[in-house]
Amino acid sequence: MILVAFLLLIVFTEVTSCKKVCSYQDVLDHLNLTTDNSVFKLTRPILDYTHPTVVQLDIFLYAILAVIEKTQTFIPFLWATMIWSNERISWDPAQFCGISHISIPRDMLWRPDLFLYEMIEKDDSPLNPYMYVSHDGMITSEEDMKVVSTCKMDVHKFPFDTQRCNITIGSAIHYIDEIRLLPSSNSSRATQFSREVMKTQGEWEFLQLSVTSSNFTFHNRQWEQLIYTFTIRRRPLLHVINFLLPILFFLSLDLASFFIADHRGEKLGFKVTVLLAISVLLLILNDILPAMSNKTPLIATYCIVIFALMLLSLLETILVTYLMEKDAASQEKLRLKGEREDKQEKVKMDNCNREKERQTCCSCVCKIPDGEKQHELLPVAEEVNDGIQSGEPHLLLLILEQLKELQKTLNLYLGCREEGGKFVQWATRINNTFFMFYVTTVSLFLPLIFMEWNS
Predict the structure, then answer these.
(1) Residues 406, 195: Cα–Cα separation, whole Å
(2) CB 260 within 8 A of CB 270
(3) For a pLDDT cut of 90, what percent of the chain falls above it?
(4) pLDDT at 163
């Protein structure tokens, strides 16, 4: 028994010592794949040139770095995977201890000459230096890339807009008979996987990633390309707080200014200040929106209409202030005219006293052009005549003079109110009419513009 056990131990030791040890270098030596061998990267890796190289492509959105409306630039961070077949490379994993794939430098084998049509800057992100080679000749290349691409943006509904930016991938020189492009994942899987791996979105919210294939003909050659459409939606909260609400606040202040008295100068200065504040916001909007757009942005219409209403309100205030000033000037003119008439009447009274013609003077003094006024002063004249006959002429003449000055002052005041009130009435009517127009326009415009934004 001891001898049998000893023999079994010897056999097990020999079997263990004869176990084959493999390495990746053995596979490379079997394939004759070295950095100095350029045969594997000169031409398409096919045995029959009539067979096209099928490239399966996957692109997923990893992050939205920036969206610049001014230059219409879309900058995503993508994760791209390419899989194609190299018919010159294959091995049996059983001969190499079960090794089914190896990783080699990406410059050792031929790679599809795919490029991005919309890319406007060279990718400066670090590249993956290796790619996988499977035993059946399938090559897998994965890399992350920062894409600075141009995107045709529609900012008509800014800041409630949704943008669709395309990333078109195609071969540079190989047409459809040489390279076929096929998406590895459909639109729903690409969207789902992008949402799972996405790290940051910033101002924009990712909605959908759709994949379509198309062909185009150039110089009697047909090329195939894959179009990845990224649908993103802007988060409008920041722009609503920093831009839309302040303009509404300024509009409310302009409406409240109608309750300031028109004859005070503060109203005009207040409206000018509000108008200047809106002008500053318009300058900020000019830096945000792109210079070229197919449609006028709704936010520009929103700002221009409110700016126009405030401008009309300022012009209306200037007109009302002018009418008020004209009313005050007319009253001052009538007051000066009344003072001149009083001075002339006093001179006339002095002449009458110097001539000592009391009856004539009294009749001259009591003579009033207006029949109604003469009827009002008739009892006073009779009392004066009685006073003259009773021997108190000087006292009665003094009383008559005071009554006449009081009558002229009252007539002058009533005349000033009648003539100056025309301008005040015009100003009041204009102010009330424009206020109704202002409130009606704002009440109709704001719901319409917000309905258009939400449509």
Answers:
(1) 92
(2) yes
(3) 34
(4) 93
Sequence-separated contacts (24+) of 369-377 with Cβ below 8 Å: 373/407, 373/411, 376/407, 377/403, 377/404, 377/407
Residue 200 DSSP SS3 = strand
Q: What is the distance between the terminal CA atoms of the chain, rounded to a whole angstrom?
A: 93
pLDDT value of position 17: 44
Which tens digit of pLDDT belongs to each residue from 10-37? 544 444 444 677 888 888 888 888 877 7
230 bridge partner residues: 165, 209
How many other CB atoms are there within 10 angstroms of residue 278's CB atom? 19
Nearest partner of 271 among 206, 201, 320, 222, judged by Cα: 320
Say how many CA atoms lie within 13 Å of 292 toward its Cβ.
Answer: 4
Q: Is the dihedral of CA 338, 343, 346, 352 positive or negative?
A: negative
pTM: 0.72
Using alpha carbons, select from 426, 431, 424, 444 the residue that is nearest to residue 257: 431
CB distance 214 to 225 below 8 Å: yes
Q: For residues 111 and 77, give the distance between their C-alpha atoms in angstroms, rounded to a whole number.
A: 22
Pull the structure tokens for residue 145.
């890339």
In contact, 200 and 174? CB cutoff 8 Å = no
Specify the DSSP element, H or E, that contains 3.
helix 2-17
What DSSP state is assigned to residue 208?
E
Token readout for 194 is: 């992008």
User: Which residues is 83 bridged to in the sheet?
Assistant: 56, 140
User: Which of 118, 124, 165 lies closest to 144, judged by CA?
Assistant: 124
Sort strands 114-116 and 162-171 into parallel, antiparallel or unpaired.
Answer: antiparallel
Helix axes 266-288, 298-355, angle to 10 degrees: 160
Query: What distance lies between CA 35 and its chain's CA centroid?
Result: 55
CATH of domain 24-33+40-235: 2.70.170.10
Q: What angle, 0 to 180 degrees and rounded to 10, lies between the N-to-C axes of helices 393-454 and 358-366?
A: 10
**Where are the chain's structural domains?**
24-33+40-235, 236-455
Q: Map tokens 């000592």 to a residue.
A: 356
Token pair, residue 273, equals 């200040």
At 258 the pLDDT is 87
CA dist 80 to 128, 185, 227, 401, Å?
11, 12, 13, 109
**From CA 445, how far away is CA 93, in angstroms rounded?**
74
Assess whether pLDDT exceeds 80 at residue 288. Answer: no
From the list 301, 159, 156, the residue with the least C-alpha distance to 243 is 159
